[in-house]
Amino acid sequence: MLCVVFGLSLLDRTNISAAYIAGLSSDVALNVGARYNIALLVFFIGYALFELPSNMVIRRLGARLWLSFLIISWGACVLGMGFVHSWVSLTVCRALLGMFEAGLFPGAVFIIGSWYRQYETAKRVSLFYMAALLASGFGPILAYALSLIRVGNGTYRQGWRWIFIIEGIATIVAGIISPFFLVEFPEKAKWLTPRQRNIAICRMQIDKEARQFVHPTFKESMRMLWDWKLAVYSMQYFVAASSVYSLSYFQPIILREGMGFSYALAQILSSPCYVFAIIMSMAMAWVSDKYRTRWTVLCFQSLSAVAGLLVILYAKPPGVRYLGLYLATFGTQANVPGTLSYGQSQTAKIERKGVIAAAMISIGAAGGITGSTIFRTQDAPQYLPGMWATIAMQLFYTLVTVCMSLYLKRQNRLADEGKGPALEGIEGFRYAP
């Protein structure tokens, strides 16, 4: 169910690009100046601000109650976008959408991190993210089908409205039924016996004295954020998120304007790239857990994205440039769950995992703002500044990942030699670079 609702959330935040080329741009004057970029980036303001508060609430209220409320609320925002008549109303709906969607992704990563151990997370986080990506990968085809709907002779003959209306209704329905299917945190899981619940909690606690989850106060949560390593993980996630958002928002436009495909073909050709990304990402996540290596997989994926973007930029035949889109989509998408697993794997205490996930994804929202602005309409059809900005960030990601992992390996070696204090204040804990 986490995969289903996250797939819907990805559809709901990126369907504006499909609606844009289906007539939204002219009907609400979204193509004037920087209005489209503004409508994209306001989403991330609330998205960034409400992630950490949401992860402080979710374990107290329970995942089923809190996430269901958020799902229904953002579904209502998407539904409302189908009835707007000005770009201002659309922008307001997008801002509210960001506020309500903020809690899902960090909450889901927190849930996964509360059930699975250090070298069990990469496969699970990747499965969660990629199963949802399967839904958003076919989003352009679904959007094309919905845009063909015509009702009456007035406003509702505009096909782009039905993209928002139908997908908004689907999200609201998912929110209504989600309490029956969403998973809870181990201490709240009623489908476990008391013995099973105790085992689920104990296997996650390296510190033998800490057997019960202690809800951190706001002050304690702020203290957890005061760690320079978290700044590095957040920087990595910023790059991963900005690259993903930039390609998600502008991939149909690149296919349409940059490669010269028709509207229908541009929507259809967006989907196979995501299928390739899902298969490759799951394979690389398996390698990461199986061989207990994080940095080699992350760097391989990042450099794949660089290679793909260079092919899109400088290859001549459309078919070859389209192949580059496969590599770019895989490299950028795979590093989102990979980077989250990297951050979670360096965290010893369960209480801190929720704060780490929320902080990383909050900084990722700033990456969303970057991703929604670096591809400017005046740079069409090649989008040269946006492409090179993304390439530079991916190379920076590789450099940061290598340096950080070498540092973590050195800390492990010193701990093995008995030099220095216990890592993360927990005896026996080792980082997972």
Automatic annotation (TrEMBL):
GO terms for molecular function: transmembrane transporter activity. It holds the Pfam family MFS_1. The keyword Iron-sulfur does not apply. It is found in: Membrane. InterPro entries: MFS, MFS_dom, MFS_trans_sf. The keyword Lipoprotein does not apply. The chain crosses the membrane at residues 34-53, 65-88, 94-115, 127-149, 161-183, 230-250, 262-283, 295-315, 321-343, 355-375, 387-408. It comes from the Eukaryota. It is a multi-pass membrane protein. Residues 1-413 form the Major facilitator superfamily (MFS) profile domain. Keywords: Membrane, Transmembrane, Transmembrane helix, Transport. GO terms for cellular component: membrane. Gene3D superfamilies: MFS general substrate transporter like domains (1.20.1250.20). PANTHER family: MAJOR FACILITATOR SUPERFAMILY (MFS) PROFILE DOMAIN-CONTAINING PROTEIN-RELATED (PTHR43791:SF47), PERMEASE-RELATED (PTHR43791). This is Retrograde regulation protein 2. It comes from Pseudovirgaria hyperparasitica. The lineage of its organism: Eukaryota, Fungi, Dikarya, Ascomycota, Pezizomycotina.
